């Protein structure tokens, strides 16, 4: 696997430092954080997932509009099954979402030794719970029943302790691990300590994960301009769909705006992450065998 370029590490450090400084001055409440989440995920987060169609077109011979339609139907069908699962069993769906998100996010350190992949993957979802367990529990309460939200938040906090001890132990025992991956994960922990959980997620998801995946995908795609415009178009359609979903949620159940946004963004991300993760795993295995 080709190593990630150094500028991504420095971008993440700069974004984290800027967020800590800005949020320390502004101190947004939960509603303001929810709007920040929507704006930044829409602009910087969604395009990396919207590259899935160009990736699929290179992986398989999706000839003409019929091939594209078959892929899109399968992709959205998987996402729909995830939504149904969340409606039927929200507690189990939340646990599954966090578990596969950890595995998916660990690929941000795919060029690093296994210990750093796993400490990073766990930290991305568990670090905020270690320092802000009650806030994490409140957010989870929008996504699942309180009987599930509390034990999941507590379990994540315990995983966070394990990931932090694992990272510190690995760095203490092996000097060869003290590189950019360790610096990025150290920055993750600083962000988790200093920022509210939603803002932490925004910084990590937009300034490291999305940037890293989108750069890798564009480097591997031959027609970068078409891929980029396709990503912009699909991101716009996703934002419109999310807006419609938010209005339907509010119409069927008059809940708070942060509750509505949390349901729309996180459950929507969960639904889209499953087919995205399956495709990205195939893409990364293919990219290792056929480097650009």
Element string (H = helix, E = strand): HHHHHHHHHHHH
Q: What best-fitting shape do the alpha-carbon axes yield?
A: globular
Q: Report the uncertain regions.
A: none
Sheet with most strands: none
| Helix content percent band | over 70%
Which range does the strand content fall in? under 5%
Family: Belongs to the Brp/Blh beta-carotene diooxygenase family.
Subcellular location: Cell membrane
EC number: 1.13.11.63
GO biological process, one term: carotene catabolic process
Descriptive notes:
Helix 5 packs across helix 12. The chain has 12 helices and no strands. The longest helix is centred in the C-terminal third of the chain and has 33 residues. The model has no long low-confidence stretch (mean pLDDT 80).
Question: Which keywords apply here?
Answer:
292 residues, mainly alpha, 12 helices, globular, dioxygenase, Probable beta-carotene 15,15'-dioxygenase
Give the SSE layout.
Layout: H1 6-26, H2 30-50, H3 52-59, H4 64-88, H5 90-106, H6 114-131, H7 133-143, H8 146-173, H9 180-194, H10 197-220, H11 224-252, H12 257-289
Helix pairs in contact: 1-9, 1-10, 2-10, 2-11, 2-12, 3-12, 4-5, 4-12, 5-6, 5-8, 5-12, 6-7, 6-8, 6-9, 6-10, 7-8, 9-10, 11-12
Short account of what is shown:
The protein has helices at 6-26, 30-50, 52-59, 64-88, 90-106, 114-131, 133-143, 146-173, 180-194, 197-220, 224-252, 257-289. The protein is mostly helical and 292 residues long.
């Amino acid at each position: 696997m080709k190593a990630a370029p150094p500028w991504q590490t420095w971008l993440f450090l700069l974004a984290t430092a800027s967020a800590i400084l800005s949020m320390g001055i502004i101190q947004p409440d939960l509603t303001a954080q929810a709007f920040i989440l929507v704006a930044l995920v829409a602009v910087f987060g969604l395009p990396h997932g919207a590259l899935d169609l160009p990736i699929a077109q290179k992986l398989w011979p999706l000839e003409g509009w019929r091939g594209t339609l078959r892929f899109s139907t399968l992709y959205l069908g998987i996402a729909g099954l995830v939504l149904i699962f969340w409606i039927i069993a929200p507690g189990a769906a939340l646990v599954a979402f966090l578990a596969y998100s950890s595995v998916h996010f660990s690929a941000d350190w795919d060029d690093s030794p296994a210990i750093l992949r796993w400490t990073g993957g766990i930290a991305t979802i568990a670090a905020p719970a270690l320092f802000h367990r009650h806030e994490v529990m409140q957010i989870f309460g929008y996504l699942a029943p309180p009987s599930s939200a509390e034990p999941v938040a507590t379990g994540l906090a315990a995983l966070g302790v394990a990931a932090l001890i694992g990272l510190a132990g690995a760095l203490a025992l092996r000097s060869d691990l003290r590189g950019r991956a360790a610096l990025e994960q150290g920055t993750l922990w600083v962000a988790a300590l200093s920022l509210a959980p939603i803002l932490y997620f925004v910084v990590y998801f937009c300034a490291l994960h999305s940037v890293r995946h989108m750069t890798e995908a564009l480097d591997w795609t031959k027609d970068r301009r078409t891929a980029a415009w396709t990503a912009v178009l699909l991101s716009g359609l996703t934002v419109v769909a999310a807006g419609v979903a938010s209005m339907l949620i509010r119409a069927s159940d008059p809940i708070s705006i942060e509750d509505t946004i949390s349901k729309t963004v996180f459950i929507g991300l969960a639904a889209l992450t499953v087919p995205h993760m399956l495709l990205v795993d195939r893409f990364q295995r293919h990219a290792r065998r056929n480097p650009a």
